[in-house]
Amino acid sequence: MFRALRNGWRLLRMALRFARHDALFPLETLGIAPALIAWARLFALRRDSRRPGERLAEALQEMGPSFIKLGQALSTRADLLSEGVAADLARLQDHLPAFSGEEARRIIEAELGQPIDAIFSSFEDKPVAAASIAQVHFAVTTDGRDVAVKVLRPGIEKAFERDLDLFYWMAELVERTQPRFRRLKPVDSVRAFADVVRVEMDLRMEAAAAEELGENFIDDANYHAPAIDWDRTAERVMTQERVDGTPIGDRDAIVAAGHDPDLIMKKCAEAFFYQVFRDGFFHADMHGGNAFVDRDGRIVPVDFGIMGRVDEDTRGYLAELLVAFLRRDYRAVAEVQFRAGYVPPDQSLETFAQACRSIGEPIFGKPSHQISIARLLAQMLRVTEQFEMAVQPQLLLLQKTMLMAEGMGTKLNPHVNIWELARPLIEDWMVTHFGPRATIGRATEDLTRGLRRLPRLIDSLHLVAEHERRKAERDAAEPPSGGRWRPAFAEVVAILALIAAIAAWWH
What we know:
Elements lengths: L1 H19 L4 H6 L3 H8 L10 H11 L2 H10 L8 H8 L10 H12 L3 H4 E4 L5 E2 L3 E8 L4 E7 L3 H22 L8 H15 L2 H14 L20 E5 L3 E3 L3 H6 L4 H19 L1 E3 L7 E4 L4 E3 L5 E3 L2 H15 L3 H10 L9 H16 L8 H10 L10 H20 L5 H17 L1 H42 L8 H21 L1
Antiparallel strand pairs: 1-3, 2-3, 3-4, 4-5, 6-8, 7-10, 8-9
Helix pairs in contact: 1-3, 1-9, 4-5, 4-6, 9-10, 13-18, 13-19, 14-15, 14-19, 15-16, 17-18, 19-20, 20-21
């Protein structure tokens, strides 16, 4: 009861803030506490000429870190909001006023257990960037290396936990009272959002992600992740190699630095492909301010708080889907979705293929440089209700990343499609991993693993049989009781054990 009262009061405050910006429409769409929302509507401004998404973005910006992150997550949900609103939320800026350099020093000393002068020979109190969760300061280590030091905001963990409780409460309310939204898995979506945010608030996890990404590209001359200084990294502090380069979103600066924007774009497309399809581990916050081009022409990412993972089956699904769409083979697009189990089997394959065509043709009928795969996936989400498709939360982060990649590519060269650059790599990967030879190879590997396990399974079966034989001998030596025949039972157990062993080997 206390939780409901507390979150009801917070919902009212949120509704009033939305009303100030005439941005109540998300709460109205979800049908949460309609009487409360109708009351808040009385305080709404009526003459705001901005687009709905712009009004909502400003309201979320004012409400603080959790709501900024929520708005960025909602930018992938064109199925919940309109495509225009989702696009406006994608431009939501994650900037907040900086906290003091003195506070940053205090946090660093507390986390690393040393005076700051023993850690850095110099430390710039003025941050170079301040976002919702942390801010970044430049420093020089005591051994003379230039580094960037990321420091978590004071009290940010408690603020997020409080707001996450509100988001969970709202999602649970939607699932209980709005059956039409259950297929969108609101509670699972909030849980996925919470997992991402909690990882962001442990800078050791971010450091580990940066190092893993760097190891994946250790032999790649075109992509480099900054090295982590683990001696100067803790839960609320992360120290990494300082990046000296040109922001990838600044085309003019890239040209002035002597780099070819088309070549940089090609390197970006290849890096995205390798992360998603080769490694299944990708940088999921790749906007123009989170990557640089160094003097050697390498792409250097920063800010590894939001990373995504894609299992091998999903990689195959994505590759087939992208290639089928690029070939405008809409029946193949539909078949991919049915095989993946994303469309219920009682739906019509032909009708779904027709729906895919209605989505794809308006996009692919344009010049290649105007084709947006991220917009295509957003449109796919719009048909989920018609075909009773369950939303796949694990794909939402990837769709957001693709949207960012397209935006970055457009800034580099608006006349080139970044996905056409990646298409040959995707097609080659498909042949290598899903062609006839690869299929035979996987079957052979599965059989080999099964054969390696077979001796252990036979030994286990032998032990079971021996145990039952001895038990049967003991039972046979005892007087019969109740007319039961013990050896017969032992035989049944042995047979069941044999069946279980064969089944385990087969799978």
